[in-house]
Design a protein that fits this description.
The chain is α+β, with helices and mostly antiparallel strands. The protein contains three helices and five strands; from the N terminus they run ααβββββα. The protein has one domain. Strand 1 and strand 2 form a beta hairpin. Helix 1 packs across helix 3. The longest helix has 25 residues.
Length: 132
């Protein structure tokens, strides 16, 4: 997960810092009814870049300044989607995270805790790069 976190950190460093868009679909916290629907829709958008890193599908949604992470098959929290939006307000960097995990509660809770830790690492790194 360390290499994965560094790759996400690098990817987020190039994402535009902006206020997050409000999703028009309010079927879940991520704006989609299912993880599969989110993955399919995001992959179809030619403006998004899609890559697979250590089994995870990572989608850079630059239009919305968001990085999406989809758990791989075989992961305890599969299927899961985590949407992280980076924005700056009053000189501070923030990470807004929304997730939809359709696995059992325990692996989903563990996944969220892992992403919270990654978010804090990214936020601190980006804040340092911004000079704050």
């Amino acid at each position: 997960m360390t290499q994965f976190s560094l790759i996400l950190l690098a990817a987020l460093g190039v994402a535009n810092a902006a206020e997050p868009d409000t999703a028009t679909r309010q079927t879940s916290s991520i704006g989609y009814a299912s993880v599969a629907e989110a993955l399919s829709d995001l992959k179809e958008n030619p403006e998004n870049s899609v890559r697979v890193q250590e089994g995870w599908t990572i989608i850079d949604d630059r239009k919305n300044s968001a990085i999406w992470s989809f758990s791989p098959e075989g992961h305890p929290a599969y299927p899961a989607a985590v949407k992280r939006t980076i924005f700056e307000r009053d000189g501070h960097i923030y990470v807004d995270m929304k997730a939809l995990c359709q696995a059992k509660k325990e692996p989903c809770d563990e996944l969220i805790e892992q992403f919270k830790a990654l978010n804090e690492q990214m936020r601190q790194h980006m804040q340092q790069q911004a000079g704050g």
